[in-house]
Write a structure and sequence with these properties.
The protein is an alpha/beta fold. It has a domain of 198 residues: TIM Barrel. 38% of the residues lie in helices and 12% in strands. The strands form two sheets. An eight-stranded mixed beta sheet has the order 2-1-3-5-6-7-9-10. It has a two-stranded antiparallel sheet with strand order 4-8. A hairpin with a 5-residue loop joins strand 1 and strand 2.
Length: 385
């Protein structure tokens, strides 16, 4: 396929993201879920009029409104679209070559930027915080992957929940191993750094063509424990050591172990501490970062100008460019969210990010009730608006 489009993305053409809710999206970062529903088969979703329109837009140098990549690219950040383009190039619409599978939402953590479709532990807290939940049930499970035609599969990405806790993920890799396909497949998995792989997942890690493990760590020591509630820093370090040895076990096969961070208001001014730790302790690891865009009140881009100026000397170049790319102020909603979450969880940021804590204490609130705003954000994420 020859393509001169500057907006083309491989995912709507050769990809499928099989969500734990049962819907099939072009990729896991796609935000406009309203045109998709769990009753659609994978092929019905991929052949829908919405997907056909999206592909035509991309070929005609237009971005789809549900895509997050344009905002990152505008700030000079390497996007998921660009990474996929480097790997797959331009392809016509056809069989699934790259697939994302969210097996379920079972997780042992409840990270501040997460939600009930990706952690069952968020379900009750969403009720308390918002008055309703993003996921209709506490536990969700995806079985649609069992019907997927993966005969042309070149790359599989596995998410959760915490996928290393998923029995279905273990059985899925067992099937790939037994069918003899695993040696020809690139495997990528995202994990929260608290769990080591079970039997068949580990065997797949050892045998696959290329391996990329994204260990999600959002801060150094206690800051990570605060943002990713339920995590233990010492366990995270032990897990990182385990994956460090896996590089040697794979015996020169292509292996990438990444410490991946979601950058937002909570950690933007402290991420350099984690950078230094990774560089000094795990020099073979890669550092990757992604800017939080949703919920919007957690985005550093939507912090007050005064706070951005206060921390701008402490952020890295990527964060600096992103946070100054636009200017929206949802900080009052952030404070209402933050205070309620601290109350629910009996947590405090005072010692782990004192600059942010002090700024919150001195900030004059202009919004007393954020519930309506929070509900609006839930509707957007559910595809209702």
């Amino acid at each position: 396929m020859s393509c001169k489009s500057k907006t083309y993305c491989p995912y709507p053409f050769i990809g499928a993201s099989l969500q734990s809710s049962g819907i099939t999206l072009p990729c896991g970062q796609y935000m406009n879920i309203a045109p998709f529903n769990p009753a659609q088969s994978i092929e019905e979703a991929r052949n829908s009029s919405h997907m056909q329109d999206m592909r035509m837009k991309m070929l005609n140098n237009e971005h789809d409104s549900g895509c997050q990549c344009p905002a990152e690219e505008a700030a000079g950040i390497q996007s998921m679209r660009q990474t996929a383009l480097d790997k797959f190039g331009y392809n016509p619409f056809g069989p699934i070559k790259t697939a994302e599978i969210f097996f379920d939402n079972v997780c042992n953590l409840k990270c501040r930027m997460c939600a009930s479709p990706y952690s069952h532990l968020w379900y009750d807290e969403e009720k308390e915080l918002y008055g309703e939940t993003l996921s209709p049930t506490k536990y969700v499970k995806n079985t649609k992957y069992l019907d997927a035609d993966l005969s042309a599969l070149e790359e599989i990405k596995v998410y959760g929940g915490e996928p290393l806790l998923s029995k279905d993920a273990n059985e899925f890799f067992k099937k790939l191993i037994s069918e003899g396909n695993i040696e020809n497949i690139d495997v990528e998995i995202s994990t929260n750094g608290t769990t080591i792989p079970t039997e068949y997942i580990l065997e797949a890690f050892e045998k696959c063509k290329s391996l990329r493990i994204n260990i999600s760590i959002d801060g150094y020591k206690k800051l990570n424990e605060y943002i990713r509630s339920g995590s233990d820093w010492n366990i995270c370090v032990s897990t990182m050591n385990f994956f460090n040895t896996l590089i040697d076990v794979r015996n020169n096969k292509e292996t990438f172990i990444q410490i991946h961070s979601a950058i937002g208001i909570y950690n933007a001014n402290h991420i350099k501490e984690l950078d230094e730790f990774v560089s000094n302790t795990f020099p073979r690891f890669i550092r990757s970062k992604q800017m939080i865009q949703f919920p919007v009140f957690l985005s550093i881009q939507n912090a007050p100008t005064e706070y951005k100026k206060l921390i701008q000397d402490d952020v890295d170049e990527m964060t600096y460019n992103y946070m100054w790319n636009e200017s929206n102020n949802f900080f009052a909603h952030f404070i209402n969210f933050h205070n309620k979450m601290d109350s629910i969880r009996n947590e405090s940021i005072e010692t782990v990010n004192p600059v942010l804590h002090k700024y919150i204490q001195n900030y004059i609130l202009t919004v007393e009730d954020s519930k309506e705003f929070f509900i609006e954000q839930i509707r957007i994420l559910q595809g209702a608006k």
